[in-house]
């Protein structure tokens, strides 16, 4: 599955559109963020995406977890949030 | 219901313990955070609480939303995350 990577500079509306699009296509989206600014943008985008999907009768919830990812040969802890219908 | 308020300086283990305790007692916890640092601590605490509860066979998911709150007569947008069994 494609992971939607969010940074502190990501525009929430763009990320929200991506999340809603992936949910419509494959029922489940994965969002990944590293760092407080990125996690905040991710959560805001999920709330906005929830609004888009609710207008279509789709109710989603989130399942957050930690994942280790390698960036430039460095191990980092990312927050991965699975968004799925409830 | 009591809302668990999280700040950027909250210790994640303490918040996680509070979330798990409220879920055990009343099946549902509400976590509130304002600002990127606080939202990040809240999500990390929820992931840790998830681990505690999974050990007891309880699987939880999150439902985040925006809420307007008044702090020192100022209107602020908070992220409220409902944590509930799945």
Q: Can you give a write-up of this model?
A:
Chain A is an alpha+beta fold and 86 residues long. Chain A has helices at residues 12-26, 36-54, and strands at residues 3-6, 29-33, 60-71, 74-85. In chain A, strands 1-2-4-3 form a four-stranded mixed sheet.
Keywords:
homodimer; 86 residues; alpha+beta; 2 helices; globular
List the helices and strands and how they pair.
2 copies of one chain form a homodimer.
Chain A (H helix, E strand, L loop, with lengths): L2 E4 L5 H15 L2 E5 L2 H19 L5 E12 L2 E12 L1
Parallel strand pairs in A: 1-2
Antiparallel strand pairs in A: 2-4, 3-4
Work out the largest interface and the residue count of each chain: A-B, 20 and 20 residues
Query: What is the fold named in CATH at topology level of chain A?
Result: Translation Initiation Factor IF3
Helix and strand pattern of chain A = EHEHEE
Low-confidence stretches of chain A: none
- Assembly type of the shown chains? homodimer
CATH classification, class level of chain A = Alpha Beta
Proper CATH architecture of chain A = 2-Layer Sandwich
Number of strands of chain A: 4
Number of domains of chain A: 1
Summarize the structure.
2 copies of one chain form a homodimer. With 86 residues, chain A is an alpha+beta fold.
């Amino acid at each position: 599955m494609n992971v939607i990577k969010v940074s502190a500079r990501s525009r929430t509306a763009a990320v929200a559109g991506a999340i809603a699009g992936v949910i419509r296509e494959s029922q489940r989206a994965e969002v990944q963020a590293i760092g407080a600014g990125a996690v905040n943008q991710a959560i805001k985008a999920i709330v906005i995406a929830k609004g888009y999907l609710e207008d279509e009768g789709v109710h989603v919830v989130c399942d957050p977890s930690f994942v280790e990812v390698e960036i430039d040969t460095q191990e980092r802890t990312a927050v991965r949030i699975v968004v799925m219908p409830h």
